[in-house]
Amino acid sequence: MTPKTQTRTTDREDIAKRLLRSSAKASYDPLVEIDWDAPIDRDRYAIRPERLSLYGTELWETLTEDQRRELSRQEIASVASIGIWFETILMQMLVRHAYDRDPTTSHVQYAYTEIADECRHSVMFARMLGKLDAPFYRLDPVAQFLGRVFKTLSNGPLTFSGALFVEEILDQLQREIMVDEELEPLTRAVSRIHVVEEARHMRYAREEFARDWHNRHPLIQHYSRFVLGLVVYYATTRLINPRVYARVGLDPRTARKAARRNPYWTDTKTWAARKVVATLDAAGAISGPGRYFWRKAGLLGRPGAPAAPTAGPGTQRA
């Protein structure tokens, strides 16, 4: 079993005051900050091609450059759809977190501030879908039902570990996007706003998870590991909705199978999750039956596989 490491935490009120000050200095209204009237540049990728689910497969070789760029727009739209889904869950969990606590504290006031941020982010992602000429990629009924159960029954460690997982995955992908001047300006602008504001959310989640996790009864920890593994599995395996492949003329079932077997895609997921995996694994939150779901989702890497490369700006496009 992975040894548990007690993460050092800051006083709850002190960190909340810092985050509130940061929010006052660097918060954005995406409806104002982003030029929504600018046309999409269809000669650019929306995300680096090496991060796409079919990159390196035989199917990838059959696609024209226009189809590859369209696939990039549809895949980033699918990821944004997952973002909207989980941010809606997170907002409800944060309301529950604040419900029994003193609203005069900075800790609760920051929870309200984060809810406001997430509302704006969901609107921003939804607007981006429309600009990319992409639908809202709704999850399948099983995942939708499990999300409804999760937001209703989650405890403190599940709320903040789940939030940290989704936010870290998006953060890694968006940090690449926002600095790459060869990519579509809209996805770069959306990524920049999200990265700045989610840095505060991740600090809040990381501290609150560490503070709560080690005070929980071992049975609660076992339960939380298992449920977290399920949440991680369903969120990760739904990142790319099969319907995106139909938008570029591919058979969804065939393309989904190719993506599932694609070592490049597995390595990308492992790379995107590496920080949150290190944090939660050190705390002992990735073990037992729950660890099976992390591995099955492709987040713990392939045996003997090197880390997915971090390409710099100006990477040659395939």
TrEMBL record:
InterPro entries: AurF/CmlI, Ferritin-like_SF, RNR-like. GO terms for molecular function: oxidoreductase activity. This is Diiron oxygenase. It comes from Streptomonospora nanhaiensis.
